[in-house]
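Entry:
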Amino acid sequence: MLVLMPLLMMVVMGFIFPSGTSIHNAPVALANLDEGPLGDAFVTQLEFLNSQTGMMELHNATGFEEIKSRIQNGDINGGIIISENFTADLLAGRQANISIITDQSNPQMAATMQSVLREVIRQLGVQYAMGNLSVSYAQIVPYNVQAGGIVPGESSYFQFMAPGILAMVVMMALMTGLPHAISYEKDMGTLDGMLVAPINRLSIILGKTLAQTTRGMIQGVLLLVLAVLLFNVHIYGSVPLVLLILFLVVFSFVGLGIMITSFTNNEQTASMIMMTIMFPMMFFSGVFFPIEQMPMFMQWIAQILPLTYATDALRNVIVLGADIPAISGQLIFLVVFGIAFLVISIPLFNRAMKG
């Protein structure tokens, strides 16, 4: 289930938050308030372009109020309004106004639609100017802008989300496994038998944590393979470096997991505390949403969470092909965080066992 659950989350979140920059068959209302011929000409241009691309399902509307009502009813995703003085402004040499109305309850769709429709309207304006001013496209649009990333290929939301999911799976494997491995045996009384055995208590802790580490690494590797095969996720960096980061994720959470199980009296309480810590961390650490899009106080919280640094390191290696020097800061934080909590947790565990 620790593989199926994050796999299901990747499927759901990947399609809820698409990374494409285009729209397809989006219902859009078009209101032409202009009584002149150029407004009708613009509508004809837009309809022809839409028939070639299939971007929108165009519906006629009478004005802003109807578009507003239909957006509120969920009938359309947005609207286009051609101003009343569209023809008069163009004939007078002024810029004509065209308004784009979007559904603000869906920010992702609204941003995509605004970007696409702005470019479409800009291109239609260029065509109008070329036809009426007898100038070339290069004169109207003198700059040719080409955009690209630092690695080949197109980015996707799956590519963005996969590294965070990997870190989350390894963290969850450890944080959910330790309560059962320690607190459950404490409840059942079997831990007492191990404590009176002629072995060092550190060996007990190491045995429990190494078992959970192995389990988490296996689940992380399995999910990485599934992400590559099912979601076309590309690993542009070093695979051994990815595995090293996953191991450091486990190491950074071992001490925290031991400390929590030391304070709790039973498995249910330990599991509840683990879940209370894990779920906010998943959303604060940039697993599903870029940290830069969060409010500033959330970004401050993210900077003290180990999952943030694990996600950043994995994302830089998998998505950007980074090497060790580029992620040295994240690696150092994970190591220091893990050592600090181990130093704190082992004495607490020993004290709790004596009690």
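Strands lie at 26-32, 56-60, 78-82, 98-102.
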